From TrEMBL:
Name of a matching Pfam family: MPTase-PolyVal
InterPro entries cross-referenced by the UniProt entry: Antirestriction_ArdC, ArdC_N, MPTase-PolyVal
Domain Polyvalent protein metallopeptidase: 160-283
Biased amino acid composition, Basic and acidic residues: 306-319
Chain spans, region Disordered: 306-333
GO molecular function, one term: single-stranded DNA binding
Annotated protein name in UniProt: DUF1738 domain-containing protein
Source superkingdom: Bacteria
Membrane spanning stretches: none
Domain N-terminal residue range list: 9-136
Length: 333
């Protein structure tokens, strides 16, 4: 159950839960994972960043299977009723300052302008942290229509496998390990048949491309850290959370093999988060930049656009896993 004493500080609760999970040898950002990322039942907007992770943690602890969330007011306005005694989850709100008009607008209004205005200028706006707000899961609310998940129809594998050329990263196959070489700007990954299934291959490739996003010609992160160093562990944390966000966006559920691959970094992540809990927030900010960059360079926006029924657009066929159970290799750097 969620610690009620820490309910007022969800970020610290998230860090504490992550450290506890890592100490058990588990990767916490995959907890509470449903195929759909948590989203607001009214606006159909997916929660992102720390809010996404906080809701996934709550879903895991409370065993919620429904990805839909809402505020108390949204429930009331729609004729639904939050059950007596239910406790919500506090999230961080965001707002946007319109420099030209010298006024604050909602994030929803900003997104509407971005989508509809052909002359949209992002430099006119500044995003800032607003007031916190509380949301409830649909499972806590009476009268909400039953949740029915539609078929997954995003070609996640094709989107991922097009990325190297779209990013300008050389992709080389062969060897036993997967890694990104920042000096020569290439990703090396074992041949696809050496992976347990396509999911593991694609998630491994996506993880390494998240590292490649840090090249000085792209997001320009410090990639000079050596294995075992604090800076190396921080980069691994950014890339792994970033790839988890992207996998959620593609509706690809991680396999146990994908999660096991990162056991080598668990102790270093524990050390980092215990030393400075704010490192998780910093890693999430870095992961969001990675997610935004890859969605943009990969031209994924149309594939990931949320429609009015809360489901992702269904223009394509599902990402299919071709099992290779006879293989037991699980290569990763």
């Amino acid at each position: 159950m969620i610690d009620k004493k820490k309910r007022a500080d969800p970020r610290q609760q998230l860090v504490d839960a992550y450290v506890a999970s890592l100490e058990q040898g588990k990767i916490p950002w995959y907890k509470g994972w449903t195929v759909e990322r948590p989203y607001n039942i009214v606006s159909k907007t997916a929660y992102k960043g720390l809010n996404q992770l906080i809701l996934q943690l709550a879903a895991d602890q409370e065993e919620y299977k429904d990805p839909r969330w809402m505020t108390f007011k949204q429930a009331k306005d729609n004729g639904w009723k939050v059950r007596k005694g239910e406790h919500g989850i506090k999230l961080t709100g965001w707002a946007v300052f319109d420099i030209e008009k010298n006024k604050t607008i909602s994030l929803a209004e900003f997104n509407r302008r971005k989508k509809e205005d052909p002359d949209f200028d992002k430099n006119r706006y500044r995003l800032f942290q607003g007031r916190s707000f509380v949301v409830f899961n649909a499972a806590q609310v009476e009268g909400v229509p039953e949740y029915v998940r539609g078929p997954i129809q995003i070609k996640g594998n094709e989107l991922i496998e097009r990325l190297p050329s779209q990013m300008g990263v050389a992709l080389k196959h062969g060897g036993d390990n997967a890694f990104y070489h920042p000096l020569h700007d290439f990703v090396r990954i074992p041949d696809k048949e050496n992976f347990v299934d396509d999911y593991v291959y694609d998630s491994t490739l996506l993880h390494e491309l998240c590292h490649a996003s840090g090249h000085h010609t792209r997001l320009n992160r410090d990639l000079t850290g050596k294995f075992g160093s604090e800076s190396y562990a921080k980069e691994e944390l950014r890339a792994e959370i970033g790839s988890s966000f992207l996998m959620a966006a593609l509706q690809i559920k991680p396999s146990p093999a994908h999660i096991r691959r990162h056991a080598a970094y668990i102790q270093s992540w524990i050390t980092i988060l215990k030393k400075d809990p704010k490192e998780l927030e910093a890693a999430v900010r870095g992961a969001e930049k990675i997610e935004k960059y890859i969605i943009s360079v990969g031209d994924w926006e149309k594939e990931l656009e949320v429609t009015n029924d809360g489901k992702l657009k269904q223009n394509e066929t599902p990402h299919k896993s071709k099992s290779r159970s006879s293989k037991n290799n699980d290569p990763e750097r």
